[in-house]
Amino acid sequence: YFFFFFQAEDGIRDAQESRGLGDVYKRQNQYIQFESRLPTGKIYGLGERTYQFDLGNGTFTIFNKDQSEAIDSGTPGNNLYGYQPVYMFNEESNYFNIILFRSTHAMDVQLTNNSKNSSIQFRVIGGIIDLRLFLSKEKSPEQVIQQYHKYLGGWIQTPFWGFGFHQCRWGYRSLDEIRWVIQNYSQKALPLDIIWFDIDYMDNYQDFTVDTARYNIEQFTKLRKQEGLRFVAMIDVGIAIDNNTAYHEGIKRNVFLRSGEYENQLLVGKVWPGYTHFTDFFHPNASQYWVDMFEQFAKLIEFDGIWLDMNEIANFCDGECDEYYSKDNKLVLPESISHNPDIPYYPGGMSLDNHTLSPSAKHYNNYTQYELQALNGHLEVKATNKFLREKLRHKFPFIISRSTFYGTGKYGAHWTGDNSASWEYLRLSIPHLFSYNLFGIPFVGADICGFNYNTTAQLCARWMQLGTLYPFARNHNHNETISQEPYAFNDLVTNTSRIALKVRYSLLKYYFTQFLIKNGTGTVFRPLFFEFPLDSNLYDNRIMNEQFLIGTHLMATPVLHQGADTVKVYFPQGAWYNIHSLSLIHI
Question: To 5 degrees, how large is the angle CA 461–CA 462–CA 465?
C-alpha cells in the first residue's frame, strides 16, 4: 500500500490510500513533496554532480547551475550544470529499474539508506508529478538503460574523428600560440587531431565574430589543411549589447528574453563581453535566428564542431544587471533589490538567481525562467544540431555542451565542466562519466589534467593515462594556470603521454565500433557490474568507482592515487588477457 497526503495551502491534510509504491505526498503553492520506499539502498543517477556512482545517503540538489569546484557528499547545493532527475535502483531479486521524474523545476532529492528502510523523497518547487517507470526484463542494468534511452529518442553518434585527441586552453591568445602548440605536438611525436578555440579568438568576446588581428583566418585555414587538423569553436550563450550582427538581428526578430521585473525591457545580464541579452529558444523565431547566425559565422571561418558553454544560463549578475536599467534607461530602482522569488522552499538552500538569470525572466507566451531554466541549454543544442545537419550537411554533428537535460543526448554530447587539478577530481571523473552513460549521453569526458589550478607532472601523467581512455579525450585548462600540454613538463610525462595516446589510437576503431553497435541506446564507458551484475564484489565502493569497462570486453584499472605505482585489480569471472602482450593474466 502507499499513501498520498495532500497538503493544502490552509495546512489541512487529506489522505488517499492506494496500492503499489508506498509514497507520501505533500503539496503547497509552488511546492510538492513525495516519497517512495526503495527495495535496496543501491541507487544511481540524479545528476548532475561530481560524486561516487552509488549515491548512498544524503540530499542531492538538481538545478542547472554554473558552479565549479563542487564535489558532492550528499550535502544540498553541490549541483552542477545538467538537469537529470532520473535514477536507477536494484531490487532484492537483482532486477534493475529506472524512474524518470519528468519535471523542469529545481528540486532536492533526499536518500535515506539503511538496513531496515531505504527511501527516496523529492522536494520540488512547482509543476506536476509525472513519473515514467522502466522495468527490466533481465537481471542486468543494460537492458533497462536501453529502454530508457529509446524513450528519450536515443543518443547521437559521434563522428570517427571525434575519438581522436583534442587540445584546448583558455588563454591561447593568438594564432602564433596555436601554431606553436601544434608544432610541439608534432616534434614530440604526440598524436593530435582536433584543436579548440576558447573565447580568446572572438572579437571582444562577442559570439559569431573573430579577432582577425590576432587570428588571421586565411593563415589558420592554411595551417589546418597542412596539419590535417579538425577545429572546434566555442560559442557562449550571451549576445553582446553592442554593434554586432547577432545583437541587431536578435532585436529585429524579437528573440531575446524579457525582464520580468522591468516593464517593456529586455533582460540584461553580463558575461564575458559585458552586458548581454539571451536568446529565448522558446520563441518561434529563435531556432532560425540561431541557424542564420551560425551560417554567417561559417562564411567567416571554417569549423568542424561547436562547443556550447555557459548555457545553464550563467550570468555574472545575480538575476539581472539592475545598474544597466538605471544608467541607460533612466529607471528609478528600489533601494533593495532581490530577484529571488518568495517560495516556501529553496532547493539546495540557495537563491535561485545566484550566478544565473532572474526566475521571473519572461519567455515567449509569458512562460518564466522559474519554469524553464532546465531547458535553455537543451534547446540551444537542438538548434545548433539543426544548423550542422541542414546547412553544413553533417551526418554526425559534433556538439559539446556544458548544460544538459534528459534527452539532450539525441542532439549533442557533454563534458563535465570546470573541474580542478586534484587527485580527487581525477578519481571522481570515472563515476561522473558512468552517470552520463546512464543519462543517455555516452560521449563524455573530463578536462584532462584539470581545468582550475596548477596541475603537477605526476598528476598530469596519471590523468593522461586515464583520460586517453575517456570517450571524449581533451586536455584543457584555465588561462591563469601553467601550461599542461603533455609536452610541457619533462621527458617522463611526455613519454607516458605518448604511450597513452598510442594506446588510444590503437583502440579508435574498437571504441567507435562500440558506439555503432549500441546504435543510440545503452552504455559504453561502464562500471563492471553493468556486465557482471550477479557478482556481489563489484558493488564494493573501490571496485565500482575505480575500475571500468569500455564496451563489454576491455577493462581498465588506472592508477588514481598520488605516489602509487601499483593497483589492486579485481577480475570478474572469465579469461582476461593483457592488451599489450596478449598474455593470459587471469582465468
Answer: 90
Per the CB < 8 A criterion, the answer to whether 255 and 339 are in contact is: no
Q: Which residues pair with 36 in a beta bridge?
A: 23, 120
Residue 12 pLDDT grade (very low, low, confident, very high; cuts 50, 70, 90): very low
Options 23, 72, 320, 418, the catalytic residue: 418
Task: Note if 312 is an active site residue.
Answer: yes
CA distance 429 to 416: 8
Cα separation of 430 and 432, whole Å?
A: 5
Q: What's the whole-model pTM score? A: 0.95
Residue 325: the pLDDT is 84
- The question of whether 302 is a catalytic residue gets the answer no
Cα three-residue angle 526-122-376, rounded to 5 degrees: 70
Catalytic member of 207, 312, 318, 447: 312
Of 309, 353, 380, 447, the active-site residue reads 309
Would residue 304 show up in a list of annotated catalytic residues for this protein?
no
Query: Model confidence over 117-158: pLDDT tens digits?
Result: 899 999 999 999 999 999 999 999 999 999 999 999 999 999
CA–CA gap between residue 553 and residue 545 (Å, rounded) = 18
What H or E segment, with its residue span, contains residue 197?
strand 194-197
**Cα torsion for 13, 14, 15, 16, to the nearest 10°?**
-150
